[in-house]
Design brief:
Layout: E1 3-13, E2 32-41, E3 44-50, E4 64-66, E5 70-74, E6 76-78, H1 90-97, H2 102-107, H3 111-121, H4 124-140, E7 143-149, H5 156-172, E8 177-184, H6 195-212, E9 218-223, H7 230-241, E10 246-251, H8 259-266, E11 270-273, H9 279-286, E12 291-294, H10 296-301, H11 309-314, E13 319-321, H12 335-344, H13 350-357, H14 359-363, E14 382-387, H15 393-396, E15 403-408, E16 411-412
Bound molecules: N-(iminomethyl)-L-glutamic acid and fe (iii) ion.
The site of fe (iii) ion (FE) has 5 residues, from loops.
């Protein structure tokens, strides 16, 4: 058995014996142990406690790390990304700086359709190579589990190609990967005036093949004015649900789209974005089992108002934090920045942000039995920080690299 012992940990963060999705005031409780040890056996957390209580038998473990002055916390669980894409879109970024509107950028061939055109021209092996690079980058930044969406194919072949790339990532990635089918990301040009035709394509061509080849865990729809209406969202989600795919939907990003209420009605695992919320949407979410996933770096990048995290938490919602890593609205998968931004701009407490980015993120991918906290029996996917004074220092010292090393499956990467 491969054993590894980490000793003299200044603070072991988010230690839990019981799993629970955290909502409202529970989010501010971050259980920690000072001057701690943690034992890893065969990639799994096998024990932890205070240094003064360490069993004598453990001191003979040959493979040890002295973590004096350092914090050890569970890896970030990033439950919303689009990290399979063919090319970056910095020309749009510059156009926006120069004052071009969304419509003008779309008219120049920009936006989601731009990414779809490039994706359909790119080979599966090249897409895999690019995505693996991004996956390795976010692992070094402390991400220990990730959800990845399709949605830049927008054709039967393109969507299947993206999902095959994600399936391959699942097979070779050292961290758990969940796959979400987002065929309903936008209407492709040919179906702009024929919504029924595209929805039929999703229902009759894409979903049966995706289900047969087991290419997806979840179904997503961009429920938004000018994209998919709540009624269309419901039809598409129900078609996916018939194949066992739970909805995780893009809701209330740009408008009060009704996406949150639709997600709640469908029993969605999560409704994501939530930049634009009113009391109705907040109450519906608070009274549901659906997780509200906040994507602050997307709001930041698009210069939009940030998600009303305080109102959501104070109303009793279960919130998670994710990166939305994609070429159009969040070209960064850095969860450290996501956590910082949620504290700085959304007034989340550091404890709330860390919980939302770990245990609640794990719930938003149904990986809570394996990840999201320091718990005996969970995977040893952990972040060892540089010597820092406290957990609050991590979001406070934004932009610094506060990570010393990342452990994935019990191995330092
Ligand atoms: O989550 N909002 C919809 N989809 C992405 C952006 C897609 C793109 O611009 O490529 C998002 O923000
Ligand atoms: Fe997204």
């Amino acid at each position: 058995m491969a054993s590894h012992l980490i000793t003299h940990i200044k603070l072991l963060v988010n230690t839990r014996t019981e799993n629970r999705l955290l909502r409202g005031t529970e989010l501010a409780e971050l259980p920690c142990i000072e001057n701690a040890y943690m034992l890893v056996e065969d990639g799994i957390i096998a024990g932890y406690g205070k240094m003064e209580d360490i069993p004598a038998s453990l001191l003979t473990v040959t493979d040890q790390t002295d973590a004096t002055g350092q914090l050890l916390l569970p890896c970030w669980c990033d439950s919303h990304t689009h990290l399979v894409f063919a090319a970056s879109r910095e020309e749009e970024f510059v156009d926006k700086i120069k004052g071009l509107s969304y419509a003008e950028i779309a008219a120049k061939g920009g936006g989601i359709l731009n990414s779809a055109r490039k994706l359909n021209e790119t080979s599966e092996s090249e897409l895999l190579r690019l995505a693996l690079g991004r996956l390795n980058e976010i692992m070094q930044l402390g991400t220990g589990a990730v959800e990845i969406k399709s949605g830049y194919g927008l054709s039967v072949e393109g969507e299947l190609k993206m999902l095959r790339v994600i399936k391959k990532l699942k097979e070779i990635s050292p961290i758990p990967v969940k796959a979400t089918f987002l065929g309903a990301h936008t209407y492709p040009e040919a179906y702009r005036e024929n919504h029924k035709g595209y929805i039929d394509l999703i229902k009759n061509e894409m979903l049966p093949q995706i289900a047969k080849k087991e290419l997806a865990d979840y179904i997503d729809v961009f429920c938004e004015t000018g994209f998919f209406s709540p009624e269309e969202t419901e039809i598409i989600c129900r078609a996916g649900m018939a194949y066992g795919l739970k909805p995780k939907i893009h809701a209330n990003q740009l408008h009060l789209s009704g996406g949150v209420q639709t997600g709640v009605k469908l029993g969605a695992l999560s409704v994501d974005h939530l930049e634009t919320m009113d009391e109705d949407a907040i109450t519906a979410l608070a009274n549901s089992g659906t997780i509200g996933t906040l994507l602050p770096t997307a709001a930041f990048f698009l210069r939009m108002p940030f998600q009303p995290a305080r109102r959501l938490i104070d109303a009793g919602c279960a919130v998670a934090l994710a990166s939305d890593f994609n070429p159009g609205s969040s070209p960064s998968g850095n969860m450290n920045l996501v956590v910082s931004m949620s504290c700085i701009q959304m007034k989340m407490l550091p404890e709330e942000a860390i919980n939302a980015a770990t245990i609640n993120g794990a719930y938003a991918m149904e990986l809570h039995d394996q990840l999201g906290s320091i718990t005996v029996g969970k995977k040893a996917n952990c972040i060892l920080t540089k010597p820092v004074p406290s957990p609050a220092y991590l979001p406070y010292a934004f932009g610094s690299n506060n990570i010393d090393r990342v452990m994935i499956g019990g191995e330092w990467t």
